[in-house]
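Hi X.,

You mentioned you wanted examples for the new student's onboarding notes, showing what a folding record looks like when two proteins sit in one file. Here is a clean example. The first protein comes first, with its sequence line followed by its structure tokens.
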Amino acid sequence: MKCKSKSTGMGFKCLFFAGLFAVSLNSIGQRTAVMADPKLGAIELSDMAGYALDANSLQPDQLIKLRIPVAGESHGKSIPAGSCKIKIGLGSKLELDPQFDLNSAGLSSYFSWTSSVNSGQLQITGDLINALPADLKSVEVAFRVKGAIEGKSTITANFLITNHKTPVVLSDENGANNGAALAYRVTKKFDLVSSIPEGNLKLSVYPNPAKDVKSVMIKVAQGKLNGKYKVTLFDITGKQLRAKELQLNFAPNFTYELGNITPGQYLIKVLNTDGTESSVMKFEKF
């Protein structure tokens, strides 16, 4: 930086601004660069007891636990605060449970979680407010959501490097593992009345009624079950609680896990994959 002046005052000003310019260049050169690999795992949906749900058979008003594994490889260095955000879009058919506290989502010591409606869908944003520990192993963040309206949509999640509020520059080693997506469908509520008479399979549940049980035995009255079957548990209002696919090989019976259900009346529906065999059974827990 050149400065020419015949007066002492002007010379002093030139020296002053030249010093500022040099300090500025020096500070830019000293910005720390950090290399890391923030990443997300596969999106999973379960009921509140932790049993996996069929993403294509979600029910209106059904409470759902949305889980996403978060991890970060950073070569022994923490991922700096203000360098990243996690953005999760619920799609147009799900909504956040109004009773859910975002502070309980997980990793709340590091991320500040907020929600807003953006382009017709609810979006959850996690702002990294404290440095994420070095080489973080997979930790789940979980949110309680529910079916809002019938139809198909997609949940999306992205771990974004933003460098929006940090003196360092964070670079991503692998941008291919920062995102996750899950297509889903909210279906019509299960029709309780029409489903009870249907079914050409003669099955029974044992014990029934039952107390303090987490699983039951489902027996076939005649013949054996062979192939892939979908077993779905509903409450008495027709709300789907969980669904599971089983591969059965000429089995006269099989065990079905109920989980931690409360006392009440339930329906268990068994359907083979091609739709030719089905049965709906009433079950009561007291």
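Then the second protein repeats the pattern, sequence line and then tokens:
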Amino acid sequence: MPRKEPPGRSRDRRRSERTDRRGPAGPRRGQRPRSAERRPGRPPREEAAEPDRERGTARERGPRADVDLLVGRNAVREALRAGRRRVYRLLIGEGTHEAGALAEIIALAETRGIEPQRVPKADLDRQADALTHQGVMAYASLYPYADLDAILTLAQERGEEPLLLALDSVQDPQNVGSLLRTAEAVGVQGVIVPERRAAGISPAVSRASAGAVEHLLVAEVTNLVRTLEGLKERGMWVVGVEGVPEAQDYRTVDLAMPLALVVGGEGPGMRRLVREACDLLVRLPMRGQIESLNVSVAGSVVLYRAWEAREGEG
């Protein structure tokens, strides 16, 4: 069944007259020339520009915009285990007991030719800012976002019905990290996040996910609504988690279908157009006095329900 798609001299003349009197216009004082020639090894302006602050990647990524600072034992260990990033430096706090997870980190690094550097813990405190470093951090290449086709291909290669998680305007890194951790635990093939008005994969998100994001395919899209409509055209169902009266009890819905589960942001929930792009909405029934659950808790419950439905069919 087909789905519904949802007066005076001109500015140019004045500019031309000024140019005729003063010669060709050059860069303003203090402004970089627009020449295509650049110093060797210097990246183009677009690559060196400060990251979008709405994605949570400006200060969190350390001194350079093209390097991520991974903080904490789980985040560093899983990045080394996954091998999807290049690790440039591994910093260990002096006096840290090098056993357990930290010993594993050092061993993984050495197998990749990375020499751990012992530094004063005060240096780690300063570089980690507000994040708890647990005596270890690493400078690595930026998170390798995937494209949507790669996610769907992974589902096909596994012989599984697609199970995707889409985050709409979820801005708290702790919530994003918790959802990614659950997503990896239940075997989702990929996660979809919008480029703007959402937390990207920042060091805080990596740490909150306990490194799970290093094992996930995450696609960053410019238009979430258009992406969801495209998934429906490919035969998938889009189900939103939203505590509204018209939503169905999540326990009564068969979630074993090819599914993209959408979770809305803290407070306002899903945006209207995203909500309208959903085939149906589900909610978690509440018995107590509070009206809703934390977004990461609600999303995790429904993710586990979807996994349970698939396990039952198997």
